[in-house]
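>> received
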Amino acid sequence: MPYARRDDDWAEEAACANLLDADKIFFPPKVKGKKTDYRRAKAVCRTCPVRAHCLMYAIAHKIPYGVWGGLTERERARIDRDAKMRIRRMWYRGELIRFERR
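>> returned
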């Protein structure tokens, strides 16, 4: 079984890897006075085999924008601070994270 370390080897297995309009879907423009529509991004994430790795990557690297691992920046901000610290420690220690290749 292959492993991903703290890099982004998992990304090539992501459901969004070959989407031509991924930037528009996962980083939609913010329009003042309008709610940002993340439905397409969340639909892609629901089918993703490496969704957890994507979310952990975003948390470990403190990525403030866009949809990562199925969560928006606001949803990631709500994750418990201690949980975020545990994820960062694990990621940067290079602890192995198991993932399945298709």
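>> The CA atoms of residues 46 and 70 lie 7 Å apart.
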